[in-house]
Specification:
674 residues, alpha/beta, 21 helices, 10 strands, 50% helix, 8% strand
Length: 674
């Protein structure tokens, strides 16, 4: 193809409106021809014989109106040479795919806002805007956009933070229900700074469980109870939620009991649920981790022997292959692979032990076949590990249940706690001395947790129409024995107290309205008789509220179905149980754990990424909080999630070093040449 034809090709693909042939070329048929408009899917083909896999159907020519008024389609030699062909993308060299956007309006402020959102959402470093590669990429997308510097980007991030904070503040302000607060401590990866994350949990007007970051507070040393409680109190006062609290859920980063006592002394007790008796809630996942690690510590010697055996057979491919061959010879059908544990994550130790138990006979068989294998566990070791794994399995399942970014409903949590209590009570009378010692240590820690959360979690379980009081009547006799009836009545009395408090709060609103109406319309009526009428009405309504709870219990339990939604059920039964509905909206919003999904099995500190160690605390708080607020907006709009994910740059780390069948392994050094 000569140079003039290449120029015409470019005009055709770039959207030029000039005709392919001009009248000066002497073609008489040119007066019947109309210009060919641009299309990124068209490419001129000069030599038809040389094309492969090309659709041979000619493109339709433009329609022309003849002299008699009828429409007819003309086909010229030009259209015979213009064939449909898929243009392949080529990232090397110059691309032929050029699209004209004549009506495009460029808004640099919008681009800056989207850039700041991107950095916030995906945790990109702020100095990314100064990277040459990113600047060149941005310029290729829109040459008119002047890339901002790092300081300008930071100012844009603070503007987004202020705007989103205002929206979140107004959202929490408008919620009529109470708000549960959870706190957790974070540490910079260089161990020099610590931060307190404060989150709000509530059920919105559509009866959806929601959570929002409130503050990411830098807490200077020393981290005493007074310092931590003051930091939390200042946050609650700043957000105006101190009189709307339901509970405060804390992980055990200190003596939390003392911290809660300090808060109770500074709160207005009358504004809390039952004068603050239900305020304290401990993080379930953190407690379970401590209990599980105590149990594993008792059988440390047996674990070390099994760990040594697993290490022996997983150190080389040859030994691993020999182990698999022995498993096939013994007809063990399990496909589980031997894995070595991480001592800081008790779940990996549990998985290592449970897998080793499956291949117990293989270890015994290989002792006879390989003289170099001399670290075989004894029969007593296997028996002890088997008993311990049976108990740890319950903690493993329970920890997975309570951990996650979407917190489980509190009502489903109580029966798990009852199972743990029953399991440990049975282990305490085991004939095995090691198991008894393990259960004793675990039960001591569990009881300290149970005594704090049993009441509020019991209330949450009763508010589940699939359980009600029947769950307590079923499990309490096993847990408490002869005192089970008294414990059940405690939960019932808590409900009556809650109903009375919520009813009194509603009556205060009605009395305030009635008093104003009385002053305007009943000035001649005796005030004492009017107050008597209010007293009689209050007594009657209080009796009706208690009957509301009794009717709820007497209605029986609902069948447990997989897709049952407790929040939707209470949303639809507010007319029948109006006071209980308000209680359910407050109690069912309480989270049982503050631990994120990615770290539920470790008591190690939550660490910030190393690329954020040197950020100013205010900048770090703006990034952390704004990220949460923007993520919730995106999740609330399904259209924004199409074709994308809300991941951070750290999410790619798990993929490094994983090789596929058709790709070369990724090497970091390869980036130095780009």
């Amino acid at each position: 193809m000569d140079q003039s034809e290449e120029m015409r090709d470019d005009e055709c693909l770039s959207g030029s409106a000039s005709p392919l042939f001009s009248p000066s070329e002497g073609n008489d048929s040119s007066k019947h021809l109309l210009p060919i408009w641009s299309s990124p899917s068209l490419e001129l083909v000069d030599d038809l014989s040389s094309t492969q896999d090309v659709d041979s159907t000619p493109c339709s020519s433009p329609t022309e109106i003849s002299s008699d008024g009828s429409k007819e389609k003309r086909i010229s030699v030009v259209w015979n040479h213009c064939k449909k062909r898929k243009v392949e993308e080529d990232l090397v060299g110059e691309s032929k795919q050029q699209v004209s956007m004549d009506c495009y309006h460029f808004d640099p402020n919008l681009v800056r806002r989207k850039l700041a959102n991107m950095v916030i959402l995906h945790e990109y470093p702020l100095n990314m805007v100064e990277h040459i590669g990113f600047r060149e990429f941005s310029a290729s997308l829109q040459p008119l956009f002047k890339m901002v510097c790092r300081n300008t980007l930071k100012r844009d991030i603070f503007k987004i933070y202020d705007y989103e904070r205002g929206k979140t503040f107004m959202e929490l302000e408008k919620i009529p229900s109470r708000i549960a607060i959870s706190t957790s401590m974070w540490t910079s990866s260089n161990k020099r700074r610590q931060f307190m994350l404060v989150k709000a949990h509530y059920i919105d007007d559509s009866w959806t469980l929601e959570s929002r970051f409130m503050r990411f507070i830098y807490v200077p040393s020393p981290h005493t109870n007074e310092v931590l409680s003051n930091a939390l109190l200042d946050c609650l006062l700043e957000w105006n939620v101190d009189r709307k609290l339901s509970t405060v859920v804390v992980d055990d980063y200190g003596t939390t009991d003392a911290m809660i006592k300090i808060l109770l002394d500074k709160f207005q007790i009358s504004s809390l649920i039952l004068h603050g008796s239900l305020l304290h809630m401990r993080c379930a996942a953190y407690i379970f981790n401590l209990i599980a690690q105590d149990g594993l510590a008792v059988i440390g010697e047996s674990i070390d022997k099994i760990r040594e055996s697993v290490l022996f057979w997983t150190t080389s491919k040859k030994r691993n292959k020999k182990f698999e061959e022995a498993a096939r010879q013994l007809y063990i059908s399990s496909t589980k692979e031997l894995i070595l544990d991480s001592k800081t994550h008790w779940n990996s130790t549990y998985l290592m032990l449970s897998t080793a138990l499956v291949y117990k006979d293989v270890f015994l068989h290989l002792r006879q076949c390989d003289s170099s294998y001399n670290c075989i566990p004894s029969e007593i070791d296997w028996e002890v590990v088997k008993d311990v794994c049976g108990t740890l399995e319950l903690f493993y399942d329970m920890t997975k249940f309570v951990s996650g970014t979407t917190y489980p409903k509190a009502s489903m949590y109580f029966h798990y706690m009852c199972q743990v209590k029953i399991e440990l009570s049975e282990c305490i009378v085991s004939s095995n001395e090691v198991i008894r010692k393990m259960a004793s240590n675990m039960l001591e820690k569990f009881d300290s947790y149970w005594n704090v959360v049993d009441r509020i979690m019991g209330v949450a379980a009763v508010l589940d129409p699939r359980f009600k009081m029947k769950l307590l009547e079923w499990c309490f006799p096993t847990i408490y024995g002869d005192t089970a009836y008294e414990e059940i009545e405690k939960i019932r009395r808590i409900f009556y107290d809650l109903l009375e408090q919520y009813h009194s709060k509603e009556m205060d609103k009605e009395d305030s309205f009635a008093n104003s109406s009385f002053c305007m319309t009943k000035g001649s009526q005796s005030k004492s008789l009017y107050e008597f009428d209010l007293f009689v009405s209050s007594e009657l309504k209080c009796r009706n509220v208690k009957l509301e709870f009794d009717h709820y219990i007497e209605d029986g339990v609902l069948p447990r179905t997989p897709n049952f939604d407790i929040l939707s059920w209470w949303k639809g039964n507010g007319v029948k149980y109006p006071t209980l509905q308000r209680i359910a909206r407050d109690i069912l919003a309480v989270p049982v754990s503050t631990v994120a999904l990615e770290s539920p099995f470790s008591t190690n500190e939550r660490l910030l990424g190393p690329h954020r160690n040197r950020l100013h605390p205010k900048t770090l708080e703006a990034l952390m909080c704004a990220q949460n607020w923007l993520q919730n907006e995106i999740k609330g709009s399904s259209s924004k999630l199409e074709g994308g994910t809300i991941q951070t740059i750290l999410d790619d780390y798990d993929d490094l070093g994983v090789e596929s069948d058709d790709t070369e392994p990724l090497e970091w050094n390869s980036f130095s040449c780009l």
